Amino acid sequence: MIFIPIDVNGETLTFLLDTGVEETVLFSLDEKEQVEFFHLEKIMLKGLGSNEAVAAYKSSKNKLNANGFVDLEHEIYLVLDQEFNFSSQVGIPVNGIIGYHFFKDHLVEIDYDRKKVIVYDSTYQKIRKRLRKNYHKSPITIENNKPYYFTNVLTAEEPRPSKMLIDTGNSDAIWLFLTEAEDIKLPSKTIQCFLGRGFSGNVYGKRARIISFTFGEKTFQNPISTFPDSTSIKSVNFVKDRVGSLGGEVLSRFSVFFDYPNNCLYSKPGSKIDNPFNFNMSGLEVQHDGLEWVTQTYQDRSSTAAVFKATQGSDGRVQDNMKVKFELKPVFRIFNVREGSTAADAGLQKDDRIISINGRNAHNLTIERINELLKSEEGRTIEIEIERKGVLHTYKFKLKSIL
């Protein structure tokens, strides 16, 4: 997923860049931040999830500034339900989501390899020549202010032309909605999963490997597809003929240009184009659970961290090379354990605090690194130390591919 800094009425906030949403949504503010909003109107929002709509306020005439890309008349939806805040799932503070209004008037490049988002003047001819020479052009439609792409999906014997939402806010590869296409077949081997959280609550469904699908000039073989259950998508307003979504696990394998004004998309394979589609084989869902102060004694004089220098030891000798460093470090906790997984069989439970994984202190890890480890290699042994109700426990299990 893509996160960018944007100034909102003079305060810098972090937004998920999400082509799958129409409006700009704000759902979190740190205590330090004081943001003024104007012309508030109370509304209700619905979306993915199994619950009812959530309360929100609509605010108009806000000033947004993304590194010189300015909108003086921006509408923002303020969500009151803090359960929608997904900062703990991604491991960094996230304040909101921005979608259509970031893309609607400009040519926007997302370069996953260089970790850059670039907004171009739509009349800039030099970049047009580069696109014609090096990129594959695909038509898209803009419906309800969201981009849709047509691809071939193969789940059975014959490829099926399929209309897909291009969703940069979805970290999975491909979602398929069985309720919208009876001829799309659910593979025989599936697993039941917690898929994340939407506007209307938790999203559940199945994951399975399908035969193939195409994006740009690349056909992906044996990718993992997600099939949300009917309850989780009951509040979604589907455009005509849509059967699914393409997400970040596909898009991040390319450099992509979105050209909403001209109803097209340009793509070029990136460094991850041939990476396999792996899956979290542990059954654990891990979330960031805040920060805590950690002290560390060390001898490195080059650090710029706040330090305290010892002047004299108990034996009277000066210890001028010993320092104590105070740092804020992340805390991680198990958010969900998939029933029947190797982690569940080993005894791990929801709400266990992670102390270390394979000998590495959890303070020195990130959500991304933990997830990479949990889908790294079938048969790999994972040794995890956890704290449960003040008592330390150590468990071992092997990563097992069931897809």
From TrEMBL:
Per its record, what are the GO molecular function terms? aspartic-type endopeptidase activity
- Which residues constitute the signal peptide according to the record? none
Q: Which Gene3D superfamilies match?
A: 2.30.42.10, Acid Proteases
GO terms classed as biological process: proteolysis
**What SMART domains does this protein map onto?**
PDZ
Q: Which organism is it from?
A: Flavobacterium rivulicola
Give all residue intervals belonging to the Peptidase A2 domain: 13-50
Q: What keywords sit in the KW lines? A: Hydrolase
Protein name, UniProt field: PDZ domain-containing protein
Q: Would the keyword Magnesium be found if you checked this record's keyword annotation? A: no
Carries keyword Hydrolase? yes
Q: Which residues form the PDZ domain?
A: 334-376
